[in-house]
Amino acid sequence: MPRLEAKPIAITGASSGIGAATAIRCAREGMPVALAARRVDRLEAVARRIVEAGGRAIIVECDVARPADCERLVARTVDAFGSLYAVFANAGYGIEGPVADSTEHDVRQIFETNFFGTLHTIRPALDAMRKAGEGHILVCSSCLSKIGVPFFASYCATKAAQDHYARALRHELEPHNIAVSSVHPIGTRTEFFDATSARSKAPRLALRTPERLMQPAEVVADAIVRCLRKPKGEVWTSRSTRLTLGLATMFPSLADIVLRRLIAAR
After folding, report:
1. CATH number for the segment(s) 9-240
2. N or C: which end of the chain has fewer CB within 10 A?
3. Of the residues 85, 93, 155, 165, which is catalytic?
């Protein structure tokens, strides 16, 4: 079981939500944290909380859709802390709308951030981890990586792609002493749903997520820290959701009945 003290971690999408909560929680464990996102003012606020609590943090303005920004994030982390032990590819967003109304631009944009942004984050981090002979890659996928939800096809597709890549990478990097974990949150009480609604035309489902399917971001952050301490392939914060989606995979016709009812209620 790896000790986390003094092991640096770089986190994208760290300005709010799961990313910010994870950064604060990791810093509490003694990990130096590199905070990356586009909103520098938000990053500064998170870094201030960490430093005031006795932790170490740097901020890096970063758009994960730009490979050079992610390369700079890794370089800044190594320069500031001497190494890079873990990276949490967390940056991403959602959008709601019918497939028939989705423009190619909209689909490509969400893949550029959610999927290719993850690859841009991982690739330079791998070089640093291979040199160190150890590391841990975490990818923020979603519980929806296991099923295609109507009106969220693009989002689900990006999360499924992250999930599949994480599993493949996990086996490829195991001989190099580098762990790879995919994180599968359910709905979190963050600005994610508000941002999704703002990007969408006539959103419905994003505004009607049942409270029982919502969790604080801190629940996800705690699960991520447990995974850093004791690496595992998939991180889930809801056993019932994991079981339900497992059944949906085993019985697709039953899943279709539930999805039809979801559409009818829309």
Report:
1. 3.40.50.720
2. N
3. 155
